[in-house]
Amino acid sequence: VRPILYGLVFQLIFLLYWPGQASAAVQLIEQAWVLESSSTSPPVFTPSRWKKTALPDHWDMSRKDFGGQVWYYATFSLDQTVKTPWAIYLPRAVHTVEVYINGSVIGNSGHFTQPLSRNWVRPHLFNISPGLLKAGENTLAIRLAGYVHANSGLYAVSIGAENELKPIYQTRYHLQITASQMSALLMFCIGLLAIVLWNYRRTDPVYFWLGLSSFMGAILTSNWWVQEIPVDRVYWETFWYGSIGWYVYCIVNFVHRFIGFGSRRIENSFMVYLLISTPTLLLVDESLLVRVSNVILAGYMVHAAYILTLMYMARTRENARDVYVLLACLWVALLLAAHDWLGEAIEPPPINLFVFYLSPLMVLVVILWVLLSRHFRTLNAFENLTAELQSRVDEKSVQLEQSHQQILQLERIKAIDHERQRIMLDLHDGMGGYLVSALSITELELGNDNTLHQTLTLAMQDLRFMIDSMDADDADLITVLAMFRQRMEPILKSQGIGLTWQVEQEPRLINAGPSQSLQVMRIVQEAVTNIIKHAAATEVVITMKQQAIVIRDNGSGLQANDHSGHGLDNMQRRASSIDANVKLQSTAEGITLSLSWGDIH
Amino acid sequence: VTYPVFIVEDDDNTRARLQRAVENHAELTVCYAEACLSGARRALDSGITPKVALIDIGLPDGSGLELIHELTHRSKPVDCMVISVLGDKQHVMAALSAGATGYILKDSHIDQIADDILMLIQGGSPISPMIARHLLKHFKLSDLVPDDANENQSRAELTDRETEVLILISNGYKRKEIAVSLVITINTVGTHVNNIYRKLSVGSNIEAIQEAFRQGLL
What we know:
The complex is a heterodimer.
Chain A: H1 2-17, E1 27-29, E2 31-36, E3 51-54, E4 57-58, H2 59-62, E5 68-78, E6 86-90, E7 93-94, E8 96-101, E9 104-108, E10 124-128, E11 136-146, E12 153-154, E13 157-161, H3 162-200, H4 205-220, H5 222-225, H6 233-259, H7 264-283, H8 289-314, H9 320-345, H10 358-446, H11 451-471, H12 477-494, E14 498-503, H13 514-535, E15 539-545, E16 548-553, H14 568-577, E17 580-587, E18 590-597
Helix pairs in contact in A: 3-4, 3-10, 4-6, 4-10, 6-7, 6-8, 7-8, 8-9, 9-10, 10-11, 11-12, 11-13, 12-13, 13-14
Chain B: E1 3-8, H1 12-24, E2 28-34, H2 37-45, E3 52-56, E4 58-59, E5 62-63, H3 64-72, E6 79-84, H4 89-98, E7 102-105, H5 110-121, H6 129-144, H7 160-170, H8 175-182, H9 186-201, H10 206-214
Parallel strand pairs in B: 1-2, 1-3, 3-6, 6-7
Antiparallel strand pairs in B: 4-5
Helix pairs in contact in B: 1-5, 4-10, 6-7, 7-9, 8-9
């Protein structure tokens, strides 16, 4: 990038000072005679009245405090009559110029009535009719009208073949007129765009000030290309100088809002300065117009310097790169201004181009670039934030969904539990109560040994087993079994059978639940009932393991003629329903019945 | 010495049976037997001083839970046993929360009923494995979930030894076996159970208990 940049800068400087390559056939007239005269036709040349002068002749230096009309006179000689079209090229003639060859007018740059045509930096090329030039000496008369202290004057004049002068003229014309017009048009459009943008985003006043500064910049560059002014010169100059002030004012406001700080007082005082200083120009004498303007301009420069200082101070606050880029751009603008000012102030004046018209455009483009990059940075940050938020929302949604499922599950469990409790309450108050009542009646009236009483006792016991299995939570098989022990032990005791209770580990079923617990309990109950009925045992050992329950008695074992199978089929059926298995081992020392199941998957 | 027993039970047969069970024992005597809440209150106001009260929850004119709460929260508390048909969690936990220190089953053998009452008097509150399991859950939940309604009440927590006792009971071990396993006396096991019951009823709110009981949420 760097070599390209250096190349461009070199190219620009080359264009600025390249006078155009002309062959020997082109004559450069750098010496002339001059006469201050308001004559409308070329006055007779008499060396006593005319003064010799070098071109460029810059009035602000050669005839200070003069405003009006001047005639230039010069001669040039030709070896022979010319056959190709010839032309005369004036790189700069401020303000209105009219050219005469051998006493005949060949063209002018406007009118001599007030206000004069404005030709500040405009080059001129006038074609010379072929018959006008003759071999030998020819005369050149130039009529130039200008204002006092208004950069009026005439640059060196070239005469030669039109096809040689035209490219030089065109280059200068494009660099001074076409480019400044384009720049003005561009700024006007961008200004319009910025104002439209601001209209949609009133909260962002930087766009407003950017748009306004663009309009002011467009007006500012009009000095390069506007030829005919619609109003009196004083009004126009006031308008134009004012535009510089308002341009700087817009930039001050913009910078304040862009960097986010700055004194309102400075904005207001600058506004007051502008409102007072600009109309002052209307009051001063026309001869003092430019001088007073320059004094007022100094006030603008103070504010320009303020902008530079402020931005330098803000470089740590705002995005440093943006501020440095803007600062550099403003410095370049100042350099261009200084360049143009020197072009009018140095003696003898260099034949340079006037390029300050590039500054507002450059500042505008750089500001736009900074604003856009800032905008895109914000946009990117915003998008990242949005994406992050979205992912967090998704995450939370998943979590919510999960907890929602958990809540549903819990509610389901709670509802089942609630229902279970309700049924139990009903059993308790209803069936349980009646059973107990019936028990007391049979006990009172028939005694304990009555079959009815015993049946009722069994019914009561069975109800208890059901209640126990339902009372327990799903995984509480051990507690259900413990309840069984509590209910069963007195019965065993009454039969003279001792019970040893061993919990090696809490048994855990594959699918735990009240009905599963009830099945296990019924299997154990059946086993114990079998022992009471058939085993002739004195001791029962019930051992709980994680995946098995083992019931061992010390009875006589299975008898050869015992076909009951100790209800093994029934137990096996129950076991199958809970994915478990029943195994019976009989020895002379007793029977070992084990109920076992697999791993919890 | 005979201990006066107060019975509140609305079923005539059951009340008669309970009376018989108490009177049959030499150390126990029925000081009063009532069928309803208001009658029980009248009897208590008249100045009877029972050692133990056997109380049914479902009384025709109110809940026995109220009576249990009143009796166990007096200046001179009376040991209360809830009369339960099935010894199920819902009834026993509600009664324990209200302040009862034991329960008797309506259909228990007459001798068993008298033994249970005497055991309570001697400091060994009856407890079943199921009740032990629910007590464990209750205290574990209290640890985890702060109770907003009782936030200014310091919730009682179980000691490690009390938890151990409850686990062994819920696993089906009997007092004697627990005493051997933990190398303590049977009486100490009973004391632990009593203490756990007391902790359950500490700061309990009778209205909340009744509401929970009614909704089957215990």
